[in-house]
Fold this protein.
Amino acid sequence: MWPYTRKLYPMMKRMLGNEEEIRDALQDLMLKLWNNREKLRECDNPGGYVFTAARNFCLDLRKRQKPRLVTIAGDEPARIPPDGPDPDAREKLWHVSQVMRNLPGKYREVLEMREIEGLSFDEMQALTGHGIPYLRVLLSRSRIKVKEELEKIYNYERGTCKTA
Amino acid sequence: MKEERVKQLERYYRGETSLEEEKLLKEEIMAAEGNSPEKDFFSLCAGESQLPPGLEKEIFAKVDGEIRRKRTRIRLYSLISVAASLALIITLYSGYRTGQKNEVDFQIIEQALYNVSEILQPELEEPEMLVLWVDNNVEIIVN
């Protein structure tokens, strides 16, 4: 159960946004999973079970919350460390986050599941309901799309930004 | 080495790599010199998937504490329910015993009252009879 914390955190962060809320939710979720550990042990795809439970838990939490003035976490740009060592690197990270943000919903979802949360295809299948071949196609397209968009923004051979 | 990486990258972009292969590929690319879109992308993803320091320990401690509290509560409830069951059994048994004793007492009192009433009861007197006629075939008696 504990190894999932590492994968659950980024997912819950995207869905809930608020750091304190994530901690509380993660604690409650872990407790629920502990109480259902027998079910989890018998499960064919424990990862899928855990992530589906986590997503439903977050959706439920969000439903119960009062509407917030800020946009939901999924629409916010990715977090970039404010104290990054190099302003150029930070700028590049900001561009990457914008590229990811502008991806079509399905592409972004699959890409985040794989690249940020580190989910296996079985776990992604349990979460999305899509077949693995289709998930591979979505993942491939989203990766290529990100690469193409980044190459449009940044000249990697010369090390300069094209938009500057 | 570089050729191998290029091949792996091609597989990566086709969505054919496993999580383990992707991990190795990311490590290689992040360690490589120069800029690349992959390096920027992996760098952002690595930052996003990072857990705040101490979070795992904090969550574990909280959940562990909660589980312990719950277990103690369950044990306490079990003890209370065992004690309550014992108390109930003892009460019922003593009640049963008391009931039995009452029954015996009641029988004794009933017997005593019967004896008293028998003593107090006047003896039945033989009814006086007037014999009017007696022969071999007929008896005429008036009470």
Chain B touches chain A at residues 12-16, 19, 22, 35-38, 40-45, 47-49, 51-52, 55-56, 58-60, 62-63, 66-67 (CB under 8 Å). The CA atoms of residues 89 and 95 of chain B lie 10 Å apart. The radius of gyration of chain B is 52 Å.
